């Protein structure tokens, strides 16, 4: 399948068929801006808690904000139809072009509140949330979920069919159960059971890392598009690579990383950004400077001085990437 081809979600056109997954603590606005710039077809906000959004919490509004391009896709999570509907209205009124319902998150703090993948344990209740969200807004509503709660309850096909009947315009399936978390290998073949019962577009998710992975998951699942999550950590441009864009050259990567850090400073303010950025810096260093001496890595990860972080980061990445390039040339 040509992943560079457009995809339609209801009345919303998406420029290609590679979607950046919503990841809490990762796909904030700076990360989404970079992913979009480098060619992702669609980027999804971090999960926005519906009740907290209606109650006007600062974190929910921060997550809701558009990254300045279209389409703007917002993912909502919750366990009560009323709050999901009200949050959907707020999201649509604030510029969301597509609203995604989270029924896939396996995190304990999410399922402990009977949200995320916990909803798959009670399909009737889950459908009440879906129906309320669809009725509340005019923009397309989509659904992201797992294969089921565990191996004994692989009910994604049943829920997907009912969701389509309720008006959902696209389904995304992560090829694991909730009880698997992110362990083992995603079951790409099992996603096909969802494809067999729905007519709306299907996105396949789970362990997509290379262009070859993307084509194989499409072949085995019958999906129309792919979603990539952890494979973009430390390389926000990688969704675009799967869609056919050229990867940044080694000489450009230090500039992208430094810009990402500076974007986070602008978005969060210095004190908060320094904390939030550390995981991203760790991923960049793991990918592109894995042999960096521990004292040098520690200095980058613990510094509270942005100028020092950027300088040390550039030096570390430039030196290691130059070595890598010279080895490849030889």
From TrEMBL:
- Which cofactors, by name? FMN
Question: Where does the DUS-like FMN-binding domain lie?
Answer: 20-290
Q: Signal peptide: which range, if any? A: none
Q: Which PROSITE patterns match?
A: UPF0034
Alphabetical keyword list: Flavoprotein, FMN, NADP, Nucleotide-binding, Oxidoreductase, RNA-binding, tRNA processing, tRNA-binding
Q: Which GO terms describe its molecular function?
A: flavin adenine dinucleotide binding; tRNA binding; tRNA dihydrouridine synthase activity
A Pfam family hit: Dus
Q: What family does the Swiss-Prot or TrEMBL record give for this protein?
A: Belongs to the dus family.
Protein name as annotated: tRNA-dihydrouridine synthase
């Amino acid at each position: 399948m040509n992943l560079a081809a457009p995809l339609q979600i209801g009345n919303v056109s998406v420029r290609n068929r590679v979607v950046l997954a919503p990841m809490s603590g990762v796909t904030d606005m700076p990360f989404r801006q970079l992913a979009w710039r480098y060619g992702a077809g669609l980027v999804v906000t971090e999960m926005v808690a519906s009740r907290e959004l209606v109650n006007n919490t600062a974190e929910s509004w921060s997550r809701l904000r558009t990254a300045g391009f279209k389409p703007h896709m917002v993912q909502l999570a919750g366990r009560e139809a009323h709050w999901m509907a009200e949050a959907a209205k707020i999201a649509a009124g604030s510029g969301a072009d597509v609203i995604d319902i989270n029924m896939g998150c396996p995190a304990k703090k999410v399922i402990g509140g009977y949200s995320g993948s916990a909803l798959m344990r009670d399909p009737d209740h889950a459908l009440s949330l879906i129906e309320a969200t669809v009725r509340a807004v005019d923009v397309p509503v989509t659904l992201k979920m797992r294969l089921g709660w565990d191996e004994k309850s692989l009910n994604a096909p049943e829920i997907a069919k009912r969701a389509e009947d309720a008006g959902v315009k696209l389904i995304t399936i992560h090829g694991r159960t909730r009880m698997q978390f992110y362990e083992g290998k995603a079951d790409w073949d099992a996603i096909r059971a969802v494809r067999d019962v729905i007519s709306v577009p299907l996105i396949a998710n789970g362990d997509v890392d290379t262009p070859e992975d993307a084509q194989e998951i499409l072949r085995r699942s019958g999906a129309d598009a792919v979603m990539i999550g952890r494979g973009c950590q430390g390389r926000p441009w990688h969704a675009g690579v799967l869609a056919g864009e050229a990867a940044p050259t080694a000489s450009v990567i230090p500039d992208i990383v430094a810009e990402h850090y500076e974007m986070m400073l602008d978005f969060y303010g210095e004190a908060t950004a320094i904390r939030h950025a550390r995981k991203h810096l760790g991923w960049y260093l793991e990918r592109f400077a894995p042999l960096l001496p521990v004292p040098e890595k520690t200095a980058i990860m613990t510094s509270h001085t942005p100028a020092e972080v950027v300088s040390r980061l550039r030096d570390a990445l430039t030196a290691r990437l130059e070595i890598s390039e010279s080895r490849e040339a030889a």
